[in-house]
Amino acid sequence: MEDDVLILAIESSCDETAAAVVKNGRIVLSNIISSQIALHTLYGGVVPEIASRKHMEQVIQVVDEALKEAKVTLDDITAIAVTYGPGLVGALLVGVAAAKAIAFAAGKPLIGVHHIEGHISANYIENKELEPPFGCLVVSGGHTHLVNVADYGKYEILGKTRDDAAGEAFDKVARAVGLGYPGGPKIDKLAKEGNPDAIEFPRAKVAGSEYDFSFSGLKSSVLNYINKCEMKKEAFDRADLVASFQNAVVDVLVTHAIHACREYNFEKFAIAGGVASNSALRSAMSKACEDNGIKFYHPSPILCTDNAAMIGAAAYYEYKAGVRSSWDLNAVPNLKLGEK
C-alpha cells in the first residue's frame, strides 16, 4: 500500500548490533541481531571500547541483511530510525553516525529514538490490540522503571531504581556464585532447580517513594551470605541461593507493579526489557495481573533483549507525530525518558 510507513531502524546502545525493517509500527519484515555476548563473556561483562569497535565492523552488514531479508531497498524506506540514548556513548555513536549517513545519502528523514521507549514499544509488535494508556515495568540491564504510558510518545515515570537496577543485581550475584556473564539467563535456569523460599533475603522499600526500587541492599545481603558461609567453611546450595535471590527481586517488582495498577487504575499492564524474559517474573506477573483483573502483556524473549524491531516500532509513532531529528543528532548516554 502507498500509505505504508517502512522504518529502517538501527540499535547499538550496548553489545548488540541490530537493524530491522518495520512496517506501520507493528509488522516486522526483518530483525537482524549480531550479538557480542561470546566476546564479552571472556571479560565477565561488557567492555565499552570492544563493543564500539565491534559495532563499527557489523553495523553496515546488519543493515544490508535487514534490507535483504525484508525484500526492500532504501528507495522503499520511509524513514531511518536510530537509538541515540541512553547507553554506552561509544556504542551509540556508531549507530547514530551510520543512521545519519544512510538517511542523508538516501534523502530520508532521520528519527532519534529513546532506548527505553523502544523496549516499551516492543509490546506493540506481538500484541496488535495493545494501545495506550497502560502501565509498564521496564527491567533491562541498567534500568528499572515503572512507567505510565499515557499515549504514544508520552510517558510518566512513576518509579525507578535508586541504585543497582534489577539486571545489574542479577549479573553481580551470578558472578559471585561463579555462573559468569550474562547473569540473568543463567540465574533463571539454575533457580528452577532450587527452593525460592530457602533463604530469606530483604525486600527494600525506599522511604517517601513508594514506586522507587533499590536492589543494592539485596545484592549486598547475598554477597554477605556467601562470605559468611565461606568464612565458616560451610557449603551452600547455589540453586537455593539464586532461587531465593530471584524470588526477592520478583516479589519487589510485582508488588510495586500491582500497587501502581490499583493506584492509577491501569486495566492493562506490560513488561519490557531484558529481565522481562525471566520466567519467574513472567509467571508471577501473569498470576498477579490475573488475580487483579488486569490484562497482561509481554514481548517474546527475542524482543525483550536489545533489538532494532522495537526501535522501528517506537519510531513509527514518532514519525506519525511529526518528529524529525536534525543532522546534528548526537549520542546522549544518560538520556532521560520523555526528553527529546
UniProtKB/TrEMBL annotation:
EC number(s) recorded for this UniProt protein: 2.3.1.234
UniProt keyword Isomerase, yes or no: no
Domain Gcp-like: 28-312
Keywords: Acyltransferase, Cytoplasm, Hydrolase, Iron, Metal-binding, Protease, Transferase, tRNA processing
GO molecular function annotations of the record: iron ion binding; peptidase activity; tRNA N(6)-L-threonylcarbamoyladenine synthase activity
Signal peptide residues on this chain, from the entry's feature table: none
Domain of life: Bacteria
GO biological process assignments: proteolysis; tRNA threonylcarbamoyladenosine modification
Entry binding sites for Fe cation: H115, H119, D306
Record GO cellular component, one term: cytoplasm
InterPro entries: ATPase_NBD (IPR043129), Gcp-like_dom (IPR000905), KAE1/TsaD (IPR017861), TsaD (IPR022450)
Location in or out of the cell: Cytoplasm
SUPFAM superfamilies membership: Actin-like ATPase domain (SSF53067)
Required cofactor names: Fe(2+)
Similarity comment text for this entry: Belongs to the KAE1 / TsaD family.
Function: Required for the formation of a threonylcarbamoyl group on adenosine at position 37 (t(6)A37) in tRNAs that read codons beginning with adenine. Is involved in the transfer of the threonylcarbamoyl moiety of threonylcarbamoyl-AMP (TC-AMP) to the N6 group of A37, together with TsaE and TsaB. TsaD likely plays a direct catalytic role in this reaction.
HAMAP family assigned to the protein according to its UniProt record, in alphabetical order: TsaD
Protein name: tRNA N6-adenosine threonylcarbamoyltransferase
